């Protein structure tokens, strides 16, 4: 198993450009999510999905869109990049169940710089 | 809402020293508690977890006990190694979705 994969690893954008960060997992996990990591802020949830066709907002969703057409893929779209979106982005996945205590598996991250 | 507070770093120790990283939380209900570790240039990986009061999670010599009375989940290791140098995140999940709420992270550097 490859686990959770993310592409690209690094990206530089100009203000106003759009792009899609890719995330895929091969563990058949229903739950997938996107976090951003900023210095001194920990990780903050952007969007999440509990299955194909179902997405919802996290705590910092503005400026980002997601869709979940398959179980495996959960792309994150930046509609019009801003310098405030400079960050490291992590995708994560986990099984779902009543206990809510499953481990989340993280991808290696995408380091995005917006100039 | 849910929140996690962990001790601010950076923490610098000599090899074989004792490690404690404090973590306290605020949550409704009965959350599950986690410690994740992030090695330089990598994503996060689960270090240990506890799902109910008085549970002790342990892995790779690290331990943490879920203390409901003090709402704490402190991470400890008796003898750290250089290879333990990383950022450690305390996190909780609970409520109606699978969202993880993270602390801000603690950078640990272990010197030989």
Q: What is the fold's blueprint, element by element?
A:
The complex is a heterodimer of chains A (115) and B (112).
Chain A: E1 4-7, E2 10-13, E3 19-25, E4 31-38, E5 42-51, E6 54-57, E7 64-66, E8 76-78, E9 87-94, E10 105-106, E11 110-114
Parallel strand pairs in A: 2-11
Antiparallel strand pairs in A: 1-3, 3-8, 4-5, 4-9, 5-6, 7-8, 9-10, 9-11
Chain B: E1 3-6, E2 11-14, E3 19-21, E4 23-26, E5 32-38, E6 44-50, E7 56-59, E8 62-65, E9 75-77, E10 86-93, E11 100-102, E12 106-111
Parallel strand pairs in B: 2-12
Antiparallel strand pairs in B: 1-4, 3-9, 5-6, 5-10, 7-8, 8-9, 10-11, 10-12
Describe this protein's structure.
The complex is a heterodimer of chains A (115) and B (112). Chain A is globular, with a radius of gyration of 13 Å. Chain A has strands at residues 4-7, 10-13, 19-25, 31-38, 42-51, 54-57, 64-66, 76-78, 87-94, 105-106, 110-114. Chain A has 115 residues and is mainly beta. Chain B is mostly beta strands and 112 residues long. The N and C termini of chain B lie far apart (41 Å). The mean pLDDT of chain B is 92. The A-B interface holds A 4, 31, 33, 40-45, 48, 50, 56, 58, 90, 92, 94, 96, 99-104, 106-109 and B 4, 32, 34, 36, 42-46, 49, 51, 89, 93-95, 97-100, 102-105.
- Bulk shape of chain A: globular
Number of distinct helices of chain A? 0
Tell the overall outline of chain B: globular
As residue ranges, the low-confidence spans of chain B are none
Radius of gyration of chain B over all CA atoms, rounded: 13 Å
Oligomer: heterodimer
Number of helices of chain B: 0
> How much is the average pLDDT of chain B?
92
Query: What is the H-and-E element order of chain A?
Result: EEEEEEEEEEE
Note poorly predicted spans of chain A. Answer: none
Counted beta strands of chain B: 12
Q: What is the structural class of chain A?
A: mainly beta
Share of residues in strands of chain A: over 45%
């Amino acid at each position: 198993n490859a686990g959770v994969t993310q592409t690209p690893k690094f990206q530089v954008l100009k203000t106003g450009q759009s792009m899609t960060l890719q995330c895929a997992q091969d563990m058949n996990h229903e739950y997938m999510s996107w976090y951003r990591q900023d210095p001194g802020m920990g990780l903050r949830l952007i969007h999440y999905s509990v299955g194909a066709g179902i997405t919802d907002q996290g705590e910092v969703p503005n400026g980002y869109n997601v869709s979940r057409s398959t179980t495996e893929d959960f792309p994150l779209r930046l509609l019009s990049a801003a310098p405030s979106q400079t960050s490291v982005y992590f995708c994560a996945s986990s099984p779902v169940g009543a206990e809510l205590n499953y481990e989340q598996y993280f991808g290696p991250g995408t380091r995005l710089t917006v100039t | 809402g849910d929140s996690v507070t962990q001790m601010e770093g950076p923490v610098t120790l000599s090899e074989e020293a004792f490690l404690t990283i404090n973590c306290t939380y605020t949550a409704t209900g009965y959350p599950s508690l986690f410690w994740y570790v992030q090695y330089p240039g990598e994503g996060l990986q689960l270090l240990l977890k506890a799902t109910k009061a008085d549970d002790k999670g342990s892995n790779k010599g690290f331990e943490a006990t879920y203390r409901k009375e003090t709402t704490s989940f402190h991470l400890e290791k008796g003898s750290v190694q250089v290879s333990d140098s990383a950022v450690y995140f305390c996190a909780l999940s609970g409520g109606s979705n699978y969202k993880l709420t993270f602390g801000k992270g603690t950078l640990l550097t272990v010197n030989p």
